[in-house]
Design goal:
Alpha-Beta Plaits, 308 residues, single chain, four-stranded antiparallel beta sheet, Ribosomal Protein S5, domain 2, 2 domains, 10 helices, alpha+beta, binds adenosine-5'-triphosphate, eight-stranded mixed beta sheet, 12 strands
């Protein structure tokens, strides 16, 4: 075992789904997905310190009142799962500083779980390696492996079977954050209802559940103009159904200079793809002048990693 540090600081990114195709719902409640994740420069910071038991505190730049502090917290579950699988009888105190909006469709809880795995692995000197950490991450939630991995990646299965996607250069995004979160299971449930009212039966998968090659090509070229028209999210319709304000914001962002706007994951965060940093700053400022909480970020950025 390596020598044990006194405290570990890990930073993990939030994500947006550049493409999110949703297919059949399986018996375990999960839907089949074909998605492209991109990690963006909005971060969760997790500090881990040695302790006798397991404890947690949370603060941050976003409203953290909806974050559970007990075993429902994904970071707490990650620490306990790692301790159990590596046969560790030490505890940990986790201090989480959240920069990713809670229940915003950006995988903030998953980022905390990935950060907690990396932090505890270093703190306890378990040195599990990326393969075993990935396996533990997948047990914690479908988005957790990507938060470990970062960058740009294709996710299939529940979104946890990852293949890195080649992405050149940097993409500039403007996020519009909402005060009110959306429940991921409810958004998926609404999608099933919408589909059952249409021609398809709720359990019918769409004809093809692959990420279109045009999306992968646009990422490879690093050309935002090429990526914008092929971005898509099957969860957009059910997310905006109860939130007409999102639809208005999507129109405004494009009017202010974004190439396109999309609901991030299950929403309600919106992600606007911009032609470059200057355009993104202008879109951010214009959206802010309408009273919206807008933030310029970029991607791809690395996954959970130790700082300092
Ligand atoms: P999902 O990953 O389910 O798509 P999301 O990205 O929309 O979710 P998160 O902020 O990750 O949103 O969390 C959704 C819910 O998970 C929260 O409302 C909260 O009850 C619970 N939760 C558990 N652990 C955490 C955590 N560490 N941070 C935030 N929420 C957490």
């Amino acid at each position: 075992m390596a020598s044990r540090p006194h405290a570990v600081h890990v930073r993990a990114p939030g994500k947006i789904n550049v493409y999110l195709g949703v297919g059949r719902r399986h018996d375990d409640g999960y839907h089949a997905l074909a998605t492209v994740f991109q990690a963006v420069s909005l971060y969760e910071d997790v500090h881990a310190e040695p302790a006798t038991g397991f404890s947690l505190e949370v603060d941050g730049d976003v409203d953290v009142s909806g974050v559970p502090l007990d075993d429902r917290n994904l970071a707490m579950r990650a620490a306990k799962l790692l301790a159990q699988s590596a046969d560790i009888d030490s505890g940990v105190h986790l201090r989480i500083r959240k920069g990713v909006p809670v229940a915003g469709g950006m995988g903030g809880g998953s980022a905390d779980a990935a950060a907690a795995l990396v932090a505890c692995d270093a703190l306890w000197g378990t040195e599990l390696g990326s393969h075993r950490l990935h396996a533990l991450a997948a047990r914690l939630g479908a988005d957790v492996p990507f938060a470990l991995h970062g960058g740009t990646a294709i996710g299939v299965g529940r979104g946890d079977e990852l293949t890195p996607a080649l992405a050149r250069g940097r993409f500039d995004w403007v996020l519009v954050l909402s005060e009110q979160g959306l429940s991921t299971p409810e958004v998926y449930g609404r999608l099933d209802v919408i589909r059952s009212h249409g021609e398809a039966v709720a359990d019918d998968p769409p004809p093809s559940l692959d990420v279109p090659s045009a999306v992968l090509h646009a990422l490879r070229t690093g050309d935002a103009h090429e990526l914008a028209p092929v971005m898509m999210n099957d969860l957009e319709a059910p997310a905006v159904l109860d939130r007409p304000d999102l639809e208005l914001a999507l129109v405004d962002g494009v009017r202010f200079g974004a190439l396109t706007g999309i609901v991030s994951g299950s929403g309600p965060t919106l992600a606007f793809l911009c032609p470059g940093p200057d355009a993104a700053r202008a879109v951010q400022d214009a959206l802010r002048s309408t009273g919206r909480d807008a933030l310029h970020v970029h991607g791809p950025v690395p996954g959970a990693r130790i700082i300092g």
